[in-house]
Amino acid sequence: MEPVTDVHAFAPGRVNLIGDHTDHTGGLCLPMAVSMGVTVRGRREGDRIVLSSSVVRGTSDIPLDVTSPATVEPSWSRYVAGVVAELRPTVGFTGGLRSDVPVGAGMSSSAALTVAVALALGHDGDVEALARTCQLAEQRATGVPCGILDQLASAAAREGHAFVLDCHTLERTHVPVPDGIEVRVVHSGQERTLVGSAYAERRAQCEAAESVVGPLRLAGVTDVDAIEDPLLRRRARHVVTENQRVLDAAEALRAGDLEALGALLDEGHRSLRDDFEVSTPVVDATVERLRAQPGVHGVRLMGGGFGGCVVAVTEPGALDEGWHARPGPGAWVEVG
Ligand code: GLA
After folding, report:
1. How many angstroms separate the Cα of 114 from the Cα of each of 125, 157, 294?
2. What pTM was estimated for this model as a whole?
3. 215 CA to middle of ligand 1, Å?
4. 21 lines ligand 1 (CB under 6 A)
5. Catalytic hit among 20, 23, 61, 150
6. What is the pLDDT of residues 173-194, one digit of tens each?
């Protein structure tokens, strides 16, 4: 008989303060983990991964040699299958999972799921390797060529901090989030749609821009202005200006300058709306409505776009809707 191991793993969802659609060109982001996340409890035993869920229907029952994660049912178990296909554990798992990350909101419930499952199944590499495994697992599960932001935010966050993430080197610089700055996440009311195909299209457009000016992470606004195609020029301009906004936002955070941070979020939203074109009328209306409230200093679309949540930076207590995102710790696992 194989030895049975009890496991308790947790991985958080994330908020990205600024730096969206920069990770896939090796650019900069400023995420933090939230206290909401996915918890997996169970035992390493047997030769299948059997997980029940308290939040979604159906049981995930995946063989260790699963070959097509994108086709398994129920659909949430594709993420579990993706992790199994990447990690190829030699022992199965029986247990259950709980999640309090809102699904489809842009807070990376799927990254929290893959990271928690990878730890539960015995991933024992560093946080970069863990995030890479889970990024590939998510790509296998969904077919969407996502970047590494969500998984690394979940794996490597530090309580009380946001961090500048360099998606080229995976280097991280942690910055404390001061008490005077409240981060609030509000759902636009629009479920995200067309996320997969539009995401792949935007990524391809960034690559096309790079074939003209070289890596966007190294490009400046003048390089981008030289791109002839107006659409590619807009896409590239978003990425280049967003990378700079991440650095400026980290400075504003360090200085506790809510006004400066807010102005950068506002600018970031305009850039995602006009240059990257991933916003929607419903999201824009949510941004404008929240921005008009007293004590709200900046609001922007968060994540991949086409619906989902917005993130606001406010004076403490200024908004009483949505979720108060407190910077929580990164993923952990207890085995024994
Ligand atoms: C999604 C992807 C991430 C990132 C964001 C946009 O959340 O999964 O990799 O590209 O969109 O910043």
Report:
1. 15, 16, 38
2. 0.96
3. 18
4. yes
5. 150
6. 999 999 999 999 999 999 876 5
